[in-house]
Amino acid sequence: MFAELNAILNTSPDHFKQEELILVSDRRADASFLVHHFLSFYLRAGCKVCFLGLAQSFSHYSAVSQRLGVSLTQAKEKGQLLFLEVLKESLDVLLQKTSNTESQALDFLRDPAVGLRGLYDFVRASVSDSGAGGEGDGGGGTVGRWGPPVLLVDDLTVLLSLGVSVGSVLDFSHYCFVTVCSQLKGNMVTLVRCEGEEDEDEDGDEEGSERLLKGLTHQCSLTLHVQGLPTGFCRDIHGQVEVCWRKTQKDKPLNQRKLFQYKVHDKGASFFARGTSSAVL
Amino acid sequence: MAAPMKSMGSSFNATSFQKKTRSKLISIPGTRPSVQNGQLIVSTGVTSLDYLIGGGLAVGTVLLIEEDRYNSYSHMVLKYFMAEGVLCGHELFLASAQDHPDDILMELPAPILDDIASHSPLEGRMQFAGPHASQDAMKIAWRYQNLPKVQTALASSSRFGHYYDVSKKMEPEIRQAANCHAFYLPEHSMESSAPRSPLLGSYSALLRSIQEVIRKGGFNGAAPPSKSRNVLRIGLQSLGSTLWGDDLCCRDNPAHGHALTTFLYGLRGLLRSSLSVAVLTIPSHLIQNRAVMGNITRLCDNAIALESFKGSDRETNPLYKDYHGLLHVRQVPRLNCLLTELPDHKDLAFKLKRKQFTIERLHLPPDLSETVSRVSRGELAGAAAMGTTCGSSGNKHLDF
């Protein structure tokens, strides 16, 4: 959890907005540090977190979270964190070990045309677990042990690499949005990674990740877009992040944008206005 | 060569001196913890490349090398990587669809071992304490049992990795001491009894056999602790080329565009849970679809690209006369840490000296000649940088 980013987003673990779809995207830079931020943020906030770890192994997230002061293993034991380690479980499916496990979540690996129905069912089952008591009374709230459910996905573009179509991924994220954000009043954070330059010329055949980014930008309420510096590589400034609030907030105009430069440290990240890096001043 | 080694070996047998820290660490020959984040790293065999990627390759990661146009330098880096594995006593897995893996192994560069003599005898004795295990495992070429013992000792010295002489080939007796698994696609496609996964295409046999090697060799941590641990080095040559049955290189919209990325995903999952490290080369200049290449890069941990001057007009440009090509760092690994070690700067070039492949910072050659040539050198720099010749010729008129 980066305190400086919380100040920028005007949020804190005790008090955060619900029903938000946060889109983290990157281009010529790596935005995965923001995923670690949101993971530790929502765990501290006491939310029930469902994490789809597509890109890295559990030990990686665990090691980083340890540095950020959150223990994933403990959260997992307490039942606060539900971690689907796709990277590990995909192997058996890919090599067609006929171990018919109870999990149908990775059906898309057998045949990408099937779509992400199984994965969505997994998400729905895991997030509605937390509110089992609340749903039983028909209250619609999540008055469980944990706070509102949160779904984190790192990262959606991996699904495209595995042959899933952009349409299916967008369907999946929309279904998740409806379930997690609208019905259960929770939050959702997804990461999308794009390639190279924004291409204006070849709009005939649009690349998968670009289309995914556009589709998700349309859905989301807050975007954090991480880019490399336009002026080139620098050791002391790792890139810039553009924060854009898309939904109207009180006393704030629509589509407000802010641009910051950032530097990732060993145990956090610092954000500063453009040109005010300590290395420059 | 053999005589001093023998004497050193016998002097070790005479003494009871043992290095104190040996028992505490699970030490695998040829590995060491990274200075930055404490991860277990191995050398790529090219010392300057090790330095560039933060000390070495972290175990469990994949290094992607984008091939240069004629695949000569990238192939050499791959051979360096395998040769380092041979000298460290690691197990090897080499897969290829073009040359037979055994032929590639035949051409490994010869190690330069004559600097053993420069070590003080005390230091040498201390380092001999480690490699009992590899001594026991040694079955082939018992006559040369002394050889690997000395080499593994070298690996654990303060210097990481070995130096190689690319003008010579590694002696067969050293090579045969290594435990190498070869995967040659034509052999496997004939005997394909297992059903081909629709998603993986021709790579399913490869992924399957890597998994088999990892399981049988106990690299996945499932082996009993009594057995000595070792590292598996995986080298994969020219993945994605047409010989692998892939149409990535021929078409803009390949039919099996996801076979390679799915394979890389599986490979990543496999490596993350085992003591193995992979280097793969991909002919990126042949791949038409830029998005596919981006996905491939993101599924690897480290990515570098070699851009050779061969066949381009840069070959004759005096600016680059000291180098054979440029090296681009495409991606640095992000494993178990938030911060990644970034290279100091990105202007890097490689050159192949008579005996050695090195990576250096790109800088302009010093100009030691008279002023007349200085002018022409400046013009060349301007022409190379901006591609405008009329501007510099205009300057020339002003000068005179």
Outline the structure in words.
Chain A is of the alpha/beta class and 281 residues long. Chain A has a domain at 16-192 and 207-224: 3-Layer(aba) Sandwich (Rossmann fold). Helix content of chain A is 37%, strand content 22%. Chain A is built from 11 helices and 9 strands. Chain A has a 9-stranded mixed β-sheet, with helices on both faces. In chain A, strand 8 (256-265) and strand 9 (268-272) form a beta hairpin. Mean pLDDT of chain A is 85; it is low at 131-143 and 200-204. Chain B has 400 residues and is α/β, with parallel strands linked by helices. Chain B has 2 domains: 37-109 and 169-365, P-loop containing nucleotide triphosphate hydrolases (Rossmann fold, 3-Layer(aba) Sandwich); 370-400, no CATH class. Chain B is 35% helix and 17% strand. Chain B has helices at 2-14, 47-52, 73-88, 101-106, 121-127, 132-137, 146-155, 172-177, 185-190, 203-216, 259-272, 290-299, 371-386, 389-399; strands at 31-33, 40-42, 57-58, 62-66, 91-96, 109-111, 164-169, 180-184, 232-236, 276-282, 302-308, 325-331, 348-352, 357-361. In chain B, the strands form 3 sheets. Chain B has a 9-stranded mixed β-sheet with strand order 8-5-9-10-4-11-12-13-14, sandwiched between helices. A 3-stranded antiparallel β-sheet of chain B has the order 1-2-3, with no helix packed on it. In chain B, strands 6-7 form a two-stranded antiparallel sheet. In chain B, strand 1 and strand 2 form a beta hairpin. In chain B, helix 13 packs antiparallel against helix 14 (389-399). The longest helix of chain B has 16 residues, at 73-88. Chain B starts with a helix and ends with a helix. Mean pLDDT of chain B is 76; it is low at 1-13, 116-134, 147-158 and 386-396. The A-B interface holds A 30, 32-33, 36, 56-57, 59-60, 63-64, 67-68, 87-88, 90-91, 94-96, 109-112, 157-158, 160-163, 193-196, 205, 207-209, 233, 235, 238, 264-269 and B 195, 197-200, 204, 207-208, 211, 253, 257-258, 261-262, 264-266, 268-270, 272-273, 290-291, 293-295, 298-299, 334-340, 342, 344-346.
